[in-house]
Amino acid sequence: MIWVWIGFIALVLLLLALDLGVFHRHSHVMTVREALVWSGVWITLGVSFSVFIYFGYENHWLGLGNEVDQIDHKANDGASAVAKYLTGYVLEKSLSVDNIFVIAMLFGFFAVPAIYQHRVLYWGILGALLMRGGMIALGKQLITQFHWVLYVFGVFLIFTAFKMVVMKTDEMDPAQNWLVRLARRWFPVTSRYHGERFLVRAGSDASHRAATPGAEVVRDDAVERARPGALMLTPLALALIVIEATDLLFAVDSIPAIFAITTDTFLVFTSNVFAILGLRSLYFALAGMLRAFRYLKYSLAMILALVGVKMLLGEQLDRLVGHHASFYLLGLIVVALVAGVLASWIADKRDAKMDAKSAGDKP
């Protein structure tokens, strides 16, 4: 079993290296068209991995499918493993949409130049993968030793769904984040961006570079006041810190959610990883359109509530619908997402007609 983990982690590292080291070696502003293409690439990779999941679990490659899944109390065969993997993938992808709302707000707050946003997201997602791995391992240990934790997770997800409906995300103040305050306490922070650097030293040539390629060099008062040679954070580093902290909070929601689908660690981890890997391109594809999806957060809240109910009533649902609960949950997640998008689109059309009518009634 250890070899399948080594192989998958090697695959992820290869994909990350190709992403930043080859395809996005030079910083540039990603267009919506380019983002849509890359989103298609990552989604294709994520869905295609289900082929390996099917044959691996069906034929028990390297020990896959030998673990008893505590959700339905039996080992997963190829079909059940694919259903749980795809459900987890779609679930994590769906919840990532709410994360994109927050990332867009953070980029606006820190005024991160568009040309450097991809770099921040790259390192942010690399950190997110490490955090998710640790949280998945911890969650697995808790569920293995204390099965009742599943019910705690279920109640927590239902509460989170309620909080998502009533909480206003745009009221967040990133400047009050405790990690930002701690970073400012321990490190001086430059007053301007210094290219794509997260750290600079006061008095070094790098600390006097222009904020964007081709722009004139401007004076950074914070650098001038700092002790020569002092290590300083740039605003780009602060943005990265807050994004990492934000992803940790979102992981607290998404990790319990996927444990409602399966306790198979490999399925949980791989579905999470492939969903997160495409988050950067998904951000650039959707960031400009997110405000139009006014009812999408209600769809996400409904999804969390559905998963929470499944976690609480898993055994009863298995008796009611058999061992195909993951298929039905996958269908409900897709229906909830489509409903949110359609409701938003209809509301936008209605508002556009009303605005046009009001403009026509004016003398």
Overview of the molecule:
- This protein is mostly helical and 363 residues long.
- It folds into two domains: 2-182 and 240-292, no CATH class; 190-233, no CATH class.
- It is 70% helix and 3% strand.
- The chain has 13 helices and four strands.
- It has helices spanning 2-23, 32-58, 78-109, 114-145, 149-166, 178-186, 221-225, 235-259, 265-277, 279-286, 296-312, 314-321, 325-361, and strands spanning 68-69, 74-75, 199-201, 231-233.
- Strands 1-2 form a two-stranded antiparallel ribbon.
- Helix 3 crosses helix 9 (265-277).
- The longest helix is centred in the last third of the chain and has 37 residues, at 325-361.
- It is globular and about 70 Å long.
- The model is unreliable at 210-218 (pLDDT under 50).
List the keywords:
two-stranded antiparallel sheet, globular, 70% helix, mainly alpha
